[in-house]
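Sharing a chain and its predicted structure for anyone who wants a worked example. Both blocks are below, sequence first, tokens second.
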Amino acid sequence: MAHHRRVYLMLAGFILVAALTGGRLVMLQLGEHADLALAASAQNSIEVSLEEYPRGRILDRNGQSLTGTYSTDRIVVVPHYIAEPELMARTLARILEVDAADVAPRLEVPGVLPYPLSPEQSNLIRGLRSRGLLVVPVMLRYGDQALAPHITGHLGKIYSDQELHELRTAGGRGYRLDDWVGKTGVERLYERYLHGERPTALVRTYRDATGRPLPGLDMVVEQRDDVRADIILTLDAEIQRAVEEVLAANPQRGAVVVSDVKTGDIVAAASYPNYAASDPVASTGGEGAEAEIFFDRTLALYQPGSIFKIVVAAAALEAAVADLETTFTCGGKKDPLITCWHTDGHADINLARAFAESCNPFFAKLGLAVGAQTLAEYAVSLGLSDQTIIGYQYERDMRQNFDLIKEPYNLVNASLGQGPVLLSPVQVNALVAAIANDGVYHTPRLVSRVQRSSGEVLLEFPFAEPEPVMKEETAQLMRRLMEMVTQDGQGVLAYFNDGGSAGKTGSAETGVTGQINAWFAGYFPLDSPRYAITILVEEGVSGGVSAAPLFREIASQINALQLQ
């Protein structure tokens, strides 16, 4: 019996091993056949990728590439097919109008030559009829039309084993040391979706056991699928370009945010100075400048100055502490509570005129009437403590804390948007959009979905549920006040003739003598507002002088685009 038991056990063992082996073979044939076939093909051939970076695209809401991705002719080289490399280097150098010494080493390894080609140059190189040269379209990720680099981010190589391990673990994708991966922005946040494991287009030539191309077989261009996906942002490329051009024409450090009043979608977000994502190191301007050039001012916290008077006025109206005719006395430079920009003072001035004229003594007294507790709670209820941007995760700045308004001696400065009050341009813009939208707040959104080129949606970011944060009557009163600012107040340079505009100026002291951060935040048109725009200019003159004209110019540009 024992003998029979051993035979049965051995037989069962053989059956188990056979089943496992058979199962593995089935998996190889069915589940991993494509990958193994590609690996075998790569071992038996020379491959040259026809993509600068095998990655998914970053697109605007209309499907335009925000990185400026484009296809252009380039020269693919397979050295073994070039009989006289020195002569070929001289010939190419003459056609390309470059130094032969620069071309020669590039003909020693398979790859794509970096030289742009005119149609005439392409024809001349094809006319050489060299088996080792092929002129084909190559996909380049960054072009002259690249936009929003602080949002889209930039790439860099994997330089450490730790980074390689983390990417392999988090993304479930194949990575190798020296691969290019996202380092900032959307490129980093959505690396697991954007990363391509293989190029979708390549040139292949087959080789023998010694590594030399097989005689009689030319290079062939192959197209194939990949697992990568595209990221669709809420940005509008045309509006983004207009904003960046306005900032570049007025080169001061600052930021602009434009959003859709009805949805909360951010349609433009620009930080200046800008940088080229195609060569971020060269954009830094030298060692030590990297932190400055990559700093995204649209997300950074600043003292908003008189922009915060929007919150103080709305809190007073909502709490029935004041109405538009409530009056306080402004003593100008000699006011006992706080000085006013108007040297002689505004004397007795009501809320409506004080808002339009941005009178500091009035709002200091109004803030005291509202009270620190009410003001702090109201700022939070307006969504100003929320740093969320839908689809775009970034590290929360813990310095933002409206409870600090309640600390002794903080209320007066806080009522003027100074002291402990800190807001980002994105947050200011969401506040203004809520007022333009009859008091309904939308959480800002920057990414709408992740999808394959086939249209299959992998991940979707719907709009947040609209949240009423202000009585409709209060929002309408605030809109009247903001209209006065642009019609005959401190923000007249922001007035947009085609449809009108409204907003609020801000001039925040930085703590450095003579340095002002200038703000203007508003919306247009007056009838059925569509866009909210927030401008920040570091080290400006004042909100009315430095920021307001930029608002008008950007509003004009956007309006022109809508009419096209």
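Comments welcome. Residues 30-41 have pLDDT under 50 and may be disordered.
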